[in-house]
Amino acid sequence: MAKDYVRQNTNYEIVGGYLSPVSDMYKKPGLLSAYHRVNMCNLAAEDSATWLMVDSWEAFQSYQRTAVVLDHFDYEINTVLGGVLTLDGKRRDVHVMLLAGSDLIATMSEPGVWSLADLDHILGRYGTFIVERAGSGMEQATDNLARWRSNIHLISQLIQNDVSSTKVRLFLRRGLSVRYLLPTAVVDYIEQRGLYQDDGPNPSPTISHADPGKGKEPPTAKDSSPRSQTIS
Predict the structure, then answer these.
(1) How large a percentage of the chain has pLDDT more than 90?
(2) How far is CA 161 from CA 139, 158, 215, in A?
(3) Cα–Cα distance between 111 and 176 in angstroms, integer?
(4) Which among 77, 121, 169, 214 is least surrounded, fewest beta carbons within 10 Å?
């Protein structure tokens, strides 16, 4: 849906996209361990697209704000890799943008939830593609974000789809099938490991990650989880 919108309504060319699972330090009730979430994202990306990838940097850090994660992608792609190689053999910087659901833009429009500096960094420097979610009023949500309106691309659903991660987790806790709601490889992964059987975090294998800030508490302001980045 987002790719179709970009192709038909903008001058951007998508060269890739990343799923970026949020850190365990986000401490959202019922948040599955990063180990499992990264594995499921990898399975979903392999199953669904050739342009979609997974970046696990955020997942194994202390809690990182969305603005910091976007800076991470911009640095790694444009500074470390030197951008992308074009057909004429030249390297060119890419424009990193945030892809998210309309529930995220709704929180951005609520006074005091996000810092003004972060909003300006995310919406002013990078920009975002917002996919409509059932029950979310996108136009109303952007009224308080008028100064960045030119950098906010609203993508309406052409076919209504109210599937959400919250509903999928609820189905799993109730023992209902989620096949055809998720990629088959992800459903198999969940069933084989008995994940999402209750509201608490599921255990994961003991893994050591170099993370000097592991004990850092997340800020009180809301942030997106999970999130994905679109590289144009």
Answers:
(1) 58
(2) 18, 9, 38
(3) 38
(4) 214
Cα angle value 42/14/55 (rounded, 5°): 25
**Residue 2 pLDDT > 50:** yes
Contacts of 218 (CB under 8 A, 6+ apart): 25, 26, 27, 63
Q: Which tokens belong to 100?
A: 């998210």
Rounded to an integer, what distance in angstroms lies between the CA atom of residue 204 and that of residue 53?
23
- What's the rounded mean pLDDT across residues 83-107? 92
Residue positions counted in the chain: 232
Mean pLDDT of 67-72: 98
Structure tokens at 85: 């190689």
Average pLDDT score over residue span 77-89: 94
Can you tell me the distance from the alpha carbon of 8 to that of 57, in angstroms, rounded to the nearest whole number?
A: 32
CA-to-CA distance for 59 and 21, rounded, in angstroms? 5
What is d(CA 198, CA 45) in angstroms, rounded to the nearest whole number? 26
Helices 34-48 and 184-193, packing angle to 10 deg: 150
CA distance 163 to 138: 17
Where b means 16+ CB within 10 Å and e means fewer, 7-32 reads eeeeebebbbbbbbbbbbbbeeeebb
Q: What is the mean pLDDT of residues 181-194?
A: 95
Partner residues linked to 179 by β-bridges: 182
Structural element, H or E, at residue 35: helix 34-48
Q: What is the pLDDT averaged over residues 128-157? A: 84
More confident residue, 103 or 55: 55
Tokens of 225: 């989880």
